[in-house]
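Hello everyone,

My group is preparing for a crystallization screen and wants a predicted model to guide construct design. The compound we'll soak is flavin mononucleotide. Before spending weeks at the bench, it would help to have a computed complex in hand. I've included the protein sequence and the ligand's SMILES below. Output in structure-token form would be ideal because that's what our pipeline reads.
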Amino acid sequence: MSAKPLAPGARRFSTAPMMDWSDRHCRRFWRALTRHSLLYTEMVTTGALIHGDRQRFLAYNDEEHPLALQLGGSLPEELAQCARFAEELGYDEVNLNVGCPSDRVQNNMIGACLMAHPQLVRDCLAAMRDACDIDVTVKHRIGIDDQDSYEHLRDFVGVVQESGVTTFIVHARTAILAGLSPKENREIPPLRYALVHRLKLDFPQLEIILNGGLKTHEECEQQLQHLDGVMLGREAYHNPSVLMSADQRYFGSDHSSDTSIEGRKQAIRSLYPYIEQQLQQGAVLHHISRHMLGLFNGEKGARLFRRHLSEQAHKRTSGIEVMEEALALVSEPQPA
Ligand SMILES: Cc1cc2nc3c(=O)[nH]c(=O)nc-3n(C[C@H](O)[C@H](O)[C@H](O)COP(=O)(O)O)c2cc1C
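Reply:
Good plan to model first. Here are the tokens for the complex, ready for your pipeline.
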């Protein structure tokens, strides 16, 4: 597989790396809703790739491109090795996680705690760049604990860019490393978009992608007036129909996707060959359908759709017919 950098503008709209959520089934589903948005995997640690079942951790479906692998780690030589794996397997980008605040990863020097060690982050990214020809990027917070001033952020980026990395994905919240759970760390520290805008003014040559709290296309488009791209996490997961207009809005596609209820049902039906194949290989319907529960949010029958899947899809015997039964519970709004 020959590596080539992503085209300019490929990161205007992306979905966030999310452990347990943005797995390959989820990404395959999202790909039925948006052709061009850049998708990120869950974080995979270098230890898991080097000592664990690498094939399993790195497996994906060809349809998922453009696709970025997110790594967690802090040893330059291990990250370099894993960046090579990413390239060999045809990923379009490899990203380093410097934003995750969980205790488990802090103990291994992974994630947001690395913001206190900009030189190490620089060396990790430089080693990754040396090891592969695909794009290397970094995702980080605006600060950690009391190191949360703009000057800290500017100095961090100033050092890290010496690695040659030019794409910075910034989750616009400080991470509180002691005292808040990862979930609280996505909710409690305030969003400070202005700091990210300032970063772009100070580093105009860098590609700066904003992440955190974005829900609507109006918000995204407003941010794109200041920044190079936006990344959606929880909203993409809980309300995946938001992905259906991304191609037209951000990637100049002239194909308008059908966001009607019927259009959304068709998107799910287009996955039936994939679902059948996965079931034959031992997956349970729930592994795939759990990511679809929000597709009809707010529509008539959405609750019944979710309930039917939640009750039926975990059974080993459940197949496409359960999906069809669930879809039949959602109906088009009646004209007034
Ligand atoms: C369930 C879950 C798992 C996450 N796992 C990761 C991860 O593996 N790597 C990472 O960089 N961020 C992870 N995040 C953080 C998201 O990538 C994103 O930065 C955060 O949710 C803020 O964006 P949002 O407001 O659009 O959701 C996770 C978030 C959630 C909700």
